[in-house]
Amino acid sequence: MAAPSGPSLSPSRAADFKTCPLLFRFRTVDKLPETPSADQVRGTLIHAVLERLFDLPAADRTPEAAAALVAPEWEKLVAQEPELASLFAAEPPVAAGPSGSPAARSAGTQTDPATDGGVSDPATDGELSNPAAGGRLSDPAAGGQSGPAAGGQLSDPAAGGQSGPAAGGQQSPAAGGGLMRDPAAVAAEADATGQAALVDVPSGAAEAARIAAFLSGARDLLAGYFAVEDPRRLEPAERESLISTMIGDELLLRGYIDRLDVSPAGDLRVVDYKTGGAPRQAFEGRALFQLKFYALVLWRTRGVVPRALRLLYLKDAEALDYSPEAGELERFERTLLALSQAIERAKRDRDFRPKPSRLCGWCSHQSLCPEFGGTPPPYPETAAITDLTSGAEPDRVATLLRDDPLG
């Protein structure tokens, strides 16, 4: 695709600005480097394995076949991004929480919202309603309508709802500066690297043991996929597909869909894989924002409103479905146009303000953030205007490694 001449948005670009305008600037304008976490890399690996799984004949898409794909797909990722191998050279740091106590929790209890929007919540009963359209998120795996927050409502960004920190309170930056790690971020990294199982491993063998534990953890997550879907009964129409459309003759929308299923009757189902646990209310709304983005693009390019938007949470083996409506997508389109206009104003005025939230605990740019006593770098004077407006995504691997907080 040729570089767009005007503004464009992807789900990750929109997510960055909605989460924190300063984060958007760091990533899109300053183009600051970020080192992916092992938890993010594991999500990328799982996506690659599931894509390759559907290259096999239907009868061969078994749990054993998927597990056998993990090691070769990991080798391919390292060949494309050699620096990934260095993630396991040293033990992940154990950060201190806001109170000064150790932040590490038992591995596997929570995951990284920057990777999958998934902060697991034991409260998975109750109905999640969308105030914009009266729709519901249903859980086919459980045979009923269930949501990640008991009795909670889904905050719809398209309807102007707030999608702030997860229930339980917001972690504010320490007064007077100081970096912060969310305990869930530390736990997710320990889980991805298998730290809980490597306590007694000799230091000389630690790196190989961490990689082995990482690959084993990826295979375990694949079991969650097979618990909610039987790939032998599916023939996806598209996988890892780049879709795009123009709205309002002024804004280009584009993004990657994990999987698109098309029924014999022409009904569309958008499927997005999440390697984290089913999230709490706030993060569910953010994940749904991403899928509405895809639904809007498909509707405008194919004239069909997707019948279902499906989130597959592999850690918890849950499938959550949502059915959008045309009127809802029209409102969402206006929301994206307004968001794009806000981004363009911020660029023009060079005004990207931080927006503190719990997600600060996952951010790798805290040292440059005023909320933590830092100073952003000088605004790049030589940046080409197309660099600031195109919103062009890097290749698919890099896009997944820097997946957005929407999931």
Automatic annotation (TrEMBL):
InterPro entries listed in its UniProt record: PDDEXK-like_dom_sf (IPR011604), PDDEXK_AddAB-type (IPR038726)
Positions with biased composition (Low complexity): 92-108, 151-160
Region (Disordered): 92-179
Domain PD-(D/E)XK endonuclease-like residue range list: 8-83, 200-370
Presence of the UniProt keyword ATP-binding in the record: yes
Segments crossing the lipid bilayer: none
Protein's name in the database: PD-(D/E)XK nuclease family protein
Keyword Zinc: no
Keywords: ATP-binding, DNA damage, DNA repair, Helicase, Hydrolase, Nucleotide-binding
